[in-house]
Write a structure and sequence with these properties.
single chain; 449 residues; mainly beta; Porin; 16-stranded antiparallel barrel; two-stranded antiparallel ribbon
Length: 449
């Protein structure tokens, strides 16, 4: 089907209204159950953002525009699943996306909307987001009730268990979970709260790939390992299926605890990528030797396989039944270009999430968060010399860490419809203090069933 004249966001409104009608219909037909053999669910999210103009001293080819701009994303996703045999679940997620980023997605390390990498065009695109098998083997311990959700069927499982996931999915589906900062569709919008920005996890340009993971749950501990495909070329859509030559490996240890009567989790995550990447030292030397050539010298020196790695910690802790705290910190080696995420070599994200029970709005949520991103010496020297990388390049660099403040209020306005007001303030966008301070305001509409 060919879509015409759909570059403006209002053309997607009929699709959203149709989906809302489908959701209501399915909900009216559904019966409460403790066990499901199959599931059909949907979600739809529309995020509108605006930034006013701001003062700048100079700009380059990959700078965030100093002019006033608007951005939006719209997604509709189906979540279909069934149980083919005991302990197994198969899920398929088709997704329709549309969107327009600020400044072509250039000029910042922290994307103001974590959905932007999925919506690279103003024409609606339908693609297969996920198709995967999840196999659970129960190993004893107390029975845990599983609630029905997106890519999750109601049922039960043992506290001690082994889970394998195989197929087409996202690394973030398995690793680096967090109860308070994970999903830009319902929580903080900035990508720096979706995952630590220094986590250069292997994926295509939309954030998905092919691979396998293994999880072992034993008492209060969880051990995870996995391998995923990356892109053929950094930050591009085409997948490199040579998973035994080019890949992203990760290993995570999680501990569940109780502190002052409230639940919490601590996770340690290590990752390692092997791919054809450019080193910043090689790119800098090429750029100096060829000053009249294309400033994006990383293309010219991307000639051999290199290893990139990182290590991070992830904390979540309930303070009361309604108030939660989170913190993520990660450090990458910073010697090579970004494979598949944002341009950050060390990142810190922290904040609080508060439910509205105190003011009799238990389904409402208030969030307050802070992000600090930094670059390695190698990346800084390349950019300061006028080099260009995938998302950055101001023709100069008066380096300072990039900082983000975000606050939001998510209101449950009707049944499963949530409307969110969001504000973000970015200091030193693109790690450059000459680029000023930028403010962003947003509205988000989200419905799921």
């Amino acid at each position: 089907m060919k879509f015409n004249l759909l570059s403006r966001t209002y053309h997607l409104i009929p699709f959203i209204l149709m989906l809302m009608g489908l959701m209501i219909t399915f909900k009216s037909m559904a019966q409460d159950t403790d066990y499901e053999d199959q599931t059909i669910r949907f979600q739809s999210t529309y995020i509108w953002q605006k930034k006013p103009s701001f003062q700048e001293k100079y700009s380059g080819p990959n700078s965030l525009s100093a002019e006033a701009e608007k951005s939006y994303t719209a997604t509709i996703t189906g979540f279909f699943g069934f149980r083919p045999w005991q302990g197994a679940e198969i899920y398929l997620n088709p997704e329709l996306t549309q969107g327009a980023p600020f400044s072509g997605l250039n000029g910042t390390g922290a994307f103001t909307n974590g959905e932007l990498t999925r919506t690279g065009t103003t024409d609606p695109k339908l693609y297969r987001q996920r198709l995967f098998l999840r196999q659970t083997v129960n190993l004893g311990g107390e029975a845990i009730k599983v609630e029905s959700g997106l890519n999750q069927m109601a049922g039960s499982m043992d506290k001690n268990r082994w889970v394998m996931t195989l197929g087409n999915f996202s690394t973030l589906d398995i690793f680096d979970g967090n109860a308070y900062a994970k999903d830009p569709r319902v929580q903080f919008m900035n990508a720096g709260f979706m995952a630590p920005l220094a986590y250069d996890y292997a994926a295509d340009a939309r954030g998905f790939g092919f691979g396998f993971t293994s999880e072992w749950y034993q008492g209060d501990w969880v051990y995870r390992i996995g391998r995923m495909t990356g892109p053929k070329d950094p930050n591009m859509l085409a997948t490199d299926f040579k998973i035994f030559k080019h890949y992203g490996d990760q290993a995570e240890i999680e501990h569940v605890h109780t502190l002052f009567g409230q639940p919490g989790k601590v996770r340690l995550l290590a990752w390692r990528n092997r791919a054809k990447l450019a080193s910043f030292q090689d790119a800098l030397e090429y750029h100096i030797a060829n000053p009249d050539s294309d400033a994006q010298a990383i293309f010219a020196v991307r000639s051999s396989e290199k290893i990139k790695y990182g290590l991070g910690i992830n904390l979540e802790q309930a303070i009361t039944n309604d108030l939660g705290f989170f913190l993520r910190a990660m450090q990458a080696d910073g010697k090579t270009e970004t494979l598949a995420f944002t341009e950050t070599d060390a990142s810190l994200g922290t904040g609080f999430s508060l439910k509205g029970s105190v003011w009799q709005r238990p389904k409402d949520t208030v969030g307050l968060g802070y992000i600090r991103n930094t670059l390695s010496d190698e990346r800084r020297r390349y950019l300061a010399a006028g080099g260009i990388s995938f998302f950055l390049g101001d023709s100069n660099l008066n380096y300072q860490p990039e900082q983000v403040f975000e606050t939001y209020y998510s209101a449950n306005v009707w049944k499963d419809l949530y409307v969110t007001a969001d504000y973000q303030r970015i200091l030193n966008p693109g790690y450059n203090s000459d680029r000023g301070v930028v403010n962003f305001a947003a509205l988000r509409f989200h419905i799921e069933y």
